[in-house]
Structures are given as C-alpha cells and as structure tokens.
Specification:
Elements lengths: L3 H6 L4 E2 L3 H19 L5 H11 L2 E2 L4 E2 L3 E3 L5 E3 L4 E2 L3 E4 L4 E3 L4 E2 L4 E3 L1 E2 L4 H5 L2 E4 L2 E3 L4 E2 L4 E3 L3 E2 L4 E2 L4 E2 L7 E4 L4 E5 L5
Helix pairs in contact: 2-3
C-alpha cells in the first residue's frame, strides 16, 4: 500500500493532512521560524537552521529572511546562490536551483497544484510538479514560477513575470505569461 507521502513524492494526488506529511510541515515551520527570527548578530545560528531545513544549501549560498517553504528538504540550492527577502517556496515537489542563481524579493516558486474538479478540491486532494532553475539564471522581484517549469541557464526573468511554461537558456523573458523577448549574448 502506498502512503500519502509516497504519493506526494511521486507527483500523484495526495492529502496534505496525512499525519506523516503534517509532521514534515511542522518540522519546516519550526526551522523557518528559527531561521527567520534568529538574531542578526548570529549568522552562524541562522545558517545552521537553513542547513537543517533545506535538502541542499550550496557553498556560499544565502537566503535573506523572511523565507517561507512547505517542507524545506525538497529545496536544493546550488553554490553561490542569493535569495532575497520574502521568498515563498511551496516545495511539495522538488525545487532544483542551479549554481550562481539570483532570486529577487517576493519571488514565489509554486510546485503545488489542485484538481480542477470541485469535488476533488473539496475533498482536499492536491499534487505537485517540480521546478528546475538553470545555472546563472536571474529571477527579478515578484516573479512567480509554477510547477512543472524549467528555466534555462543564464535566463533572466523580468520583475513581476509569471512563468507558466519552460523558458530556454540565454533569453530575457517578461510578462504574464512570461515569454522570451530576446536572446541574451554571452559576454564576460
């Protein structure tokens, strides 16, 4: 028999009020509270909370509090990443963030989704799809990325864009829904 947590990890419909899943949510809530409320003069304490919370925190990466997530262990940051204030990572499915990624304030990475049918929503079923962000991408302030999306390496997503489908590498994308408006040249 498949557990709700196994269904969640497989991208299948699951119920979030399952006791095992609820325990994971509680763990993340405690760790994000410790990270967000940590004293400014204790960066090592905050870093320890972040390392315990996240699946991977690459060398030299940092998140500015406040930060919010569902589970934490589903989020993987490569080295030298920067995540600005008020990030929301609904990491029901895995979030993979490459090396040297810059994430502006108020960015939302939303892997979670819900059925369109009203009866299934009323019954509290949900599911999720992963998000992948390539190396050296930059997400401007207020960007929203939906589940199932891959953003290519070196791509810049303009402030306020809503990314509903994959973006190729080396483009500037803007709008709602986000669309590439030009190719970015590779310069030093």
């Amino acid at each position: 028999m498949t557990t709700m947590r196994e269904r969640m990890l497989a991208g299948e419909l699951y119920l979030a009020d399952d006791p095992e899943i609820a325990a994971d949510l509680d763990r993340a809530a405690r760790l994000t509270e410790r990270f967000n409320a940590g004293p400014v003069d204790d960066p090592q304490g905050r870093l320890a909370a972040l390392r315990e919370l996240l699946g991977t925190l690459g060398e030299g990466s940092w998140i500015r509090p406040p930060f919010h997530c569902d589970y934490g262990w589903q989020t993987h940051l490569g080295p030298r990443c920067f995540v600005n204030f008020n990030a929301v990572f609904l990491d029901v499915a895995r979030i993979n963030i490459g090396a040297d990624v810059q994430i502006g304030p108020n960015v939302q990475l939303l892997t979670a989704t819900h059925p369109l049918g009203p009866a299934a929503r009323r019954a509290k079923w949900e599911s999720a799809e992963p998000i992948n962000i390539g190396d050296n991408a930059w997400l401007g302030g207020g960007v929203i990325v939906l589940g199932g999306v891959t953003i290519g390496a070196n791509t810049v997503v303009g402030a306020g864009a809503v990314v509903t489908r994959d973006l190729p590498p080396d483009v500037l994308a803007v709008g709602n829904p986000a669309r590439p408006v030009r190719t970015l040249e590779q310069t030093t």
